[in-house]
Amino acid sequence: FNSLNHDMTLSEFKFIWYMEYSHRMWGRVVGLAYILPAAYFWRRGWLSRPLKGCVLALCGLVCFQGLLGWYMVKSGLEEKPDSYDIPRVSQYRLAAHLGSALVLYSASLWTGLSLLLPRHKLPETHQLLRLRQYAHGTTALIFLTALSGAFVAGLDAGLVYNSFPKMGERWIPDDLLAFSPVLRNIFENPTTVQFDHRILGIASIAAVTALYLFSRKISLPRRTRMAVTSLLAIACMQ
């Protein structure tokens, strides 16, 4: 307020404050939704030994996620006496917070579906093995794309260029490698960060489409085919 936002009203500040407060409270509710039932099921003896390991890992991830959130927000509150830039959290910590959330969500979904749905026993053909490997590779690419989005958000890199598919008047902007050393551009140059996010996004939609087309050539269970089709639909919408 003292450095930049002199005209901010109290109601505008309250909107930001309640957004943050709600996020924290919701995170605590999520933590309780993990830990309390886990303790109850454990005490009742309803968890097998492998499942106990999964439950401990998930509860640990929930606590780690909260710790990362605090560590991330702390970076946005640190005094920077020589800087009059917009106060923002570290893009590195934001990416770590988002990445941890994605791992937690994916692990929760995987564990839940493994308990609810029986595993299909399919013949381990060469095509099925290739499909599984390609699906894992696509998953990693989507995860990397999401993490690159955290860097875009952390640096406000979306404000640098707002035209597509070109960035301004060029396919490859002039200031793509403006920082030194070169590796620093990938994480700290807003232009490079936005450029990488665009490339990764295009690569992700291409990989998901290829995965869908490849899956059409293999005889798969209905549930698996529905999952691949839903993945393509969600990727297109995204």
Please explain how this structure is put together.
InterPro entries: COX15/CtaA_fam (IPR003780), HemeA_Synthase_type2 (IPR023754). Pathway: Porphyrin-containing compound metabolism; heme A biosynthesis; heme A from heme O: step 1/1. It comes from Pomatostomus ruficeps. The chain crosses the membrane at residues 25-42, 54-73, 93-117, 138-161, 197-215. The protein has 238 residues and is mainly α. The protein folds into 2 domains: 1-117; 118-237, no CATH class. The chain contains 7 helices and no strands. It is flat and about 60 Å long. The protein starts with 9 loop residues before the first helix and ends with a helix. The model has no long low-confidence stretch (mean pLDDT 91).
Q: Output the radius of gyration.
A: 22 Å
What is the element string, with H for helices and E for strands?
Answer: HHHHHHH
Oligomer: single chain
Which residues sit in consecutive blocks of at least 5 with pLDDT less than 50? none
* Large-scale geometry: flat
- Domain count: the total is 2
Give the proportion of residues in helices: over 70%
Question: By helix and strand content, what is the structural category?
Answer: mainly alpha
User: What is the mean predicted local confidence, pLDDT?
Assistant: 91
Q: Biggest sheet, open or closed, and with what strands and sense?
A: none
Strand content: under 5%
Membrane topology: Multi-pass membrane protein
Pfam families: COX15-CtaA (PF02628)
Protein name: COX15 protein
Subcellular location: Membrane
